[in-house]
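Below is how a single chain appears once it has passed through the pipeline. First comes the sequence as given, then the structure the pipeline wrote out for it. We keep one example in the README because the format questions we get most often are answered faster by looking than by reading.
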Amino acid sequence: MFVENLKETLNLGEKLSHKLNPQSIVLLNGPIGAGKTTFVQGIARGLSISEDITSPTFALSHHYYSGKIPLIHLDLYRLENTFSAKEFFYSEEEEALQNKAILVIEWPDLIEPLIENFWKIKISYAENYGRNYEIRDPKNLLTFS
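Resulting structure:
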């Protein structure tokens, strides 16, 4: 799916939020600057989360409890080894399960093999402008065209 601008990115994230359930896991892949956090802002908007959604690159995680469903947003970019990523993920996954939260993970490569049931979002730069989104549901079916 081609997304032309920021508004469409937010709208696509919001559209996806309506398909997510408590304890859903979303893996978000894409290069730096592709709009991963903006996409998460759209998810948060769809969940009626009132807090500002910012990138958790330095904090590693941000937790938002003000919406219809809580949201935990992880960014594993700075984690360099699988052991650290696994330990951090398991801790955050436990909190997500306890709070019936949606867990969105940017840069999930180190932990993807640990997860069985997840949404997978792949963002890439389009040829001249905009972004291409490939969205797969937990059954690995193309969900959006």
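Helices lie at 6-17, 36-46, 82-99.

See the next section for the split statistics.
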